[in-house]
Amino acid sequence: MEAPLPEPEPLKALIESLRRLPGVGVRSARRMAYHLLQHDQPGAEQLSRALSSALRDLRHCARCNGFTEEEICATCSNPKRDPSILCIVETPADQNMIESSHGYRGLYYVLMGRLAPLEGIGPDELRFDRLLKRVDDGLVKEVILATNFTAEGETTAHYLSELLQSRGIAVSRLARGVPAGSELEYVDAGTIAWALMERRST
Amino acid sequence: MEAPLPEPEPLKALIESLRRLPGVGVRSARRMAYHLLQHDQPGAEQLSRALSSALRDLRHCARCNGFTEEEICATCSNPKRDPSILCIVETPADQNMIESSHGYRGLYYVLMGRLAPLEGIGPDELRFDRLLKRVDDGLVKEVILATNFTAEGETTAHYLSELLQSRGIAVSRLARGVPAGSELEYVDAGTIAWALMERRST
């Protein structure tokens, strides 16, 4: 929705900037701008400050590539975690989901993306050289590939699997199957097919 | 989703600030923060700057209460518009929708909200005194109430209608009826009832 009325420049610039957020179209951007300016000016100031401080103070952990203020992030420097297992995830959000399962006490490596040749994202863009250096620390015995079960996530897992196995590292992948609490009637056929193929003896 | 992993302070602050945007929950806020920091740092800088410049440079038009950089906005100072009709809307977004219908050449007044007693928004919060001063400029002959057709918008229209009519101003309301292009089968019964009640002879 292009504004048919003349719009002041700072408002136009704010709407344009909000549109760059993922999942925000022009209507939402407009609504956000009006809301901030009319009903939450302290929120707007806070957001402006938070953005500049995050840009200034955050960097990538030298070990796991996640966001941190320090050289090494709190998770990587936690001595209670098992340094022999490394779980590779696409994003910090995925890392949080795995952590909240309470089923993992090893370390992480965050790719900050996935292979997407069509978008020009290859092994160089994802800095696989840094990942290989991380894996070669002499402590990592097993790498768990926890990229998403999408076409791109699977491609990334496949590529990394070949790369790491050629260096003699044990590589595993998260199990595919029927989600916990599901009724089979409502699970998609592809998932059922995987669950059949990867069935376990009890 | 509370992050189960320790999170650096600037990242936490950024996610909290993004959550204040309307329609943004913690998951979207997290996704936005990761996106800005990892894939669009220029976008983050731009948004931070746009926010502070909008806060610094925008104010309310002395005539229509919309956002402007000047004392009087471009729409209110446009000599081609008819100063005898004033259309009252809730938000600048509503104003844009009316303008894009190309069916209106009068002026506007933007309430920047609607009466919502449960949220503590009454005539004082919406500065109805300013609106009355605006209407009393000696040029306005008719006021069109274009608040939303929601409970709160209707209440606001009803209240304003009594207030303005008691001052001898002609007040009208947008017509209710079947939307253009609709099939009756898919229009809700309330709308049909209104359309019947307000039927026009042809």
UniProtKB/TrEMBL annotation, chains A, B:
Keywords: DNA damage, DNA recombination, DNA repair, Metal-binding, Zinc, Zinc-finger. Pfam families: RecR_C, RecR_HhH, RecR_ZnF, Toprim_4. A zinc finger (C4-type) spans 61-76. InterPro entries: DNA_Rcmb_RecR, Rcmb_RecR, Rcmb_RecR_Znf, TOPRIM_dom, TOPRIM_RecR. The keyword Metal-binding applies. Residues 84-179 form the Toprim domain. CDD domains: TOPRIM_recR (cd01025). SMART domains: TOPRIM. GO terms for molecular function: DNA binding; zinc ion binding. GO terms for biological process: DNA recombination; DNA repair. May play a role in DNA repair. It seems to be involved in an RecBC-independent recombinational process of DNA repair. It may act with RecF and RecO. HAMAP family: RecR. Belongs to the RecR family. This is Recombination protein RecR. It comes from Parapusillimonas granuli. The gene is recR.
